[in-house]
Amino acid sequence: MLFYIVLAVLAYFVFKGMKVEYIGVYPQPNLMSYFKTFFIYSLIQLRKWKAAKDAKNAGNAVAGSTKEAGYGVKSTQDVAKLEAAQDLESEPLAIDAVLFTGGSQDGRYMVISAARRQNNVLQCIFTIHIPGLGTLTHPNHPDTTLIQAPGETGWCAGGIELKPVVPMKKWSIKYKGDMILEMESGGSKLCQVALTGEYNSDLEYFDFDSDMEPLVVARAMAREVWDRQYFQRIRGAHQNHYEQFGILKANVLIDQEEYKLDLSVMRDHTHGSSRDWRLMHRYGLHNFTTRSGLKGFLGVISQPETFSHLELGYIYTPDKVKQPVQEVDLDLWKLGEGGLDPSDCGFRFKAGGKWYQVQVEVLKKVEVMFGENWEARVIERFCRYKINDEAGWGVSEWEYRHREGKNKNTSCYTEVSSEQVLTREASFEQIDDTMNETLVVVEDIQDSDKESVSSKERSKASNSSSSGSSSSDSSSEEDK
Hints:
By secondary structure, the protein is of the alpha+beta class. The chain is built from 6 helices and 22 strands. The protein has helices at 2-16, 31-57, 79-83, 214-222, 228-236, 426-479, and strands at 20-22, 26-28, 95-103, 109-116, 121-130, 134-137, 145-147, 155-157, 160-166, 170-183, 188-200, 206-207, 239-254, 257-272, 282-290, 295-303, 307-316, 322-329, 344-351, 354-370, 376-387, 390-401. Helix 2 (31-57) crosses helix 4.
């Protein structure tokens, strides 16, 4: 009987877990995490095996419905269905978003994205950097919210038009309208811009529902406290997401002067019933291309309601082999936790059983805000990379939870000063208060110790002085 009681208690702690958090946000692994990791890893592998078996029996049919997808299972095998604009249904926080982001070896960069939301809202990012000229941004920035005009459908609004042409092969990218140019020579001006581009790829897409390394997902889930509400949250927050690298070539007319873009870009497509920026604490993501043709996307996401520390990503080797990332050695709490993203940092990641050392140098930043009340601050960072000492280029995207509301005077070029610290979670404030109280106590103890030491030193000095006087008097008497 005692054996079963002990077993039940052990099982409770294994599956519920004991959550020890770093600075109130990032849970750290403990002994029970290993058991939980093995359990989730086994479940994901079982789901992958069953989905593969079902897909084989059904030919090229659906391997899993949208609601059943994720954790080893694709939402569908039909790429035409994947690439099409998805039904937002009646979910108030539903999202259907596409993104193209990347750069070239000669220092040209572009980020263009469009996220379909309810009520004809399209949340967009559009920025281009051309060396010698400057950085162009959409005139609506830093706000990203655009409203589609009557007749506009899909990913079209505010002059932006993103359309799939051949599923997983070709997309059309267009823009026509004003943009604000921050000139390298100084100052800024309004320009008329027309961009016509085409994205092409022959690479296999990476489906985060089915292609992620199971052990990475298992480790992330094992950090969390398990209960029924937790598993309901991760199911409710799940988004179908896939990515692909390719080449984007475009002609850009800026006040009738022509420029050409030939960029290695990462594109993605996300669809889900709920994206609530208020739940996201922060993330740090990187995409890069090297001279040899190594391409990669990876980073860490912190969304405490579901995954407080989720490592994710993949690479394409120079011979176009797709490999999931097995580990990302990047601790967010060590890099810009207060709101100032690092302009120069290093970390490492593992893919295909091989470790890669990464060095990042940020050349230029553009900040935009997401949400009705600007709940998220997203920083697009144009970067130079070194991957195992090989030169590369790409775009890094960092995000922070924003709690200061809208500020119409905010510039998308405004740098965050080292003194500026964003408002943190209540737990952060409690930790800060606790730390301050601790410092006060330490300072009081130190002051007390100093007074004690000073008192002792004065006493010793006094004794020494008295002793010296006596010795001096004795010597005088002897001399006499």
